[in-house]
Amino acid sequence: MPGTEKFGSIDLGSNSVRCLVVSWKEGVLEYISSGIWISRLTEGIGEGDYLIADGPLERTLSAVDKACALLERSGVQGKNTAFCATESLRGAGNGQETVSRIVSSAGFPLRILSGTEEAELSFKGAILGVPGADSVFDLGGGSLEIVKEGMAYSFPLGAVRMASRFGEDDGKVFSEIRGILGERFHSGRCSLAGVGGTSSSAVMMLKGIAVADYHPSKVHGQPVRAGELGSLVARLKMTPPGDRSSITGLEPGRADIIVAGLAAERAVLDAFQVGQYMHSETDLLWALCAETAAGRGLVSTAARIKTGSGR
Known about the structure:
This protein is of the alpha/beta class. It has two domains: 5-114 and 283-304, 2-Layer Sandwich (Nucleotidyltransferase, domain 5); 116-279, 2-Layer Sandwich (Nucleotidyltransferase, domain 5). The chain contains eleven helices and twelve strands. The protein has helices at residues 54-73, 87-90, 95-106, 115-129, 159-166, 170-181, 197-207, 216-219, 226-237, 258-272, 284-295, and strands at 5-12, 16-25, 28-38, 81-85, 111-112, 135-139, 144-148, 151-155, 192-195, 223-225, 276-279, 302-304. Strands 5-4-1-2-3-12 form a six-stranded mixed β-sheet, with helices on both faces. The longest helix is centred in the N-terminal third of the chain and has 20 residues, at 54-73. The protein is globular, with a radius of gyration of 18 Å.
């Protein structure tokens, strides 16, 4: 039986750069450490094509450097590291130029996931930690991925994109997303799991967990109800984005997109005709680690998140 081995993954998203370090032992991936840095690579994204500007790219390069440093400190070898980008680079008009800059800085090959790949990996990651889930949504900055009954969907309906188009008009965000999702997800009896920064922030705010006290064990597996999302939106809209530092659980870098993100989650629940979903901290990053481990002949059947210190 192989011993313990460490794996790492980096996700270059529209709103943030995220990094995860796990160990593999006897088929189980166990959390070691993680990091997230708000970079807003797709700043200004709305409808259609967009270009990545110098400022957001420099912020992202800095964040990638910090992620690589975390992997190095944690003892993750390069062969055990997965590095991917999602909607942040799929639709950028200058994506190839941006990829060259990022790869040169990171020293790792960068894999740009298709929308379908992103959705499928989000599902695989979620069910490692929430094995009973049969449907999963992943709300990111640029896109919304949904997997149901083996069908994977990707929609350009992320929180950054929705906030750019509709600001804090949660009614318009809800209507736009609800209209696009249509009736295809109606079930009313599914076990729905949700992943992504908006979902994690929702749980943090609902439970009153300070950002500095974050640990995945504190938020993983928590139910989030439609009524709670509506109450959070009402509470947030009473405070201007620039003054939301007093709201426990909300990262400052999400203050201007959180209302749009929560409205998007409400729309997903309505599309599924369910009253709640289960938040999962095991997501695409975990699936990437499992995929890398599988390439070494190490099969992962579950994820484990123990209590411990923060990021």
